[in-house]
Design brief:
- The chain is mostly helical.
- Helices cover about 75% and strands about 5% of the residues.
- A hairpin with a 6-residue loop joins strand 1 and strand 2.
- The mean pLDDT is about 80.
Amino acid sequence: MTLTFAGEMQVLLRQWKVTSINGLGGSLIAVFSLAVLYEFLSSYHRYLGLPNGRGKITQEFGSNKSILDHLLRTSSYILSAITGYLLMLVVNTFNVWLFVSVVVGLGFGFFLSNPLYMTYRNMELQRRTQDQRNNNGVQRRSKRDKQNEKSLA
């Protein structure tokens, strides 16, 4: 198998046959969009894995929130895996144009999704830092209150 520039090919399904330039253009747009979607799903999956992120892991696995978070993570992972395998099958058509469309789509998707991921990650880190400051302030006040109570007694 070698890379080819052939105009006539079958992509993923029997019904998805490319026989014209217009069909190739539409296929390139569809594959490009699928690659961008894959990068957004990957970034979202990474976001769910943040320690204090939206998909926060709770100690009580029996709670509804924990189960819903786990289902969200699982469905995100499954969608990302399916999209990745579909892109792999598109590349296995050995068509140069489709290969380039996948690579450019992945690059463009990363270009768009990574700044969003970094923004949300920084927001979560700031929120966690703020929570730690608040908790430390509460603990300090309670220690001071205890010392004041001991000195008054």
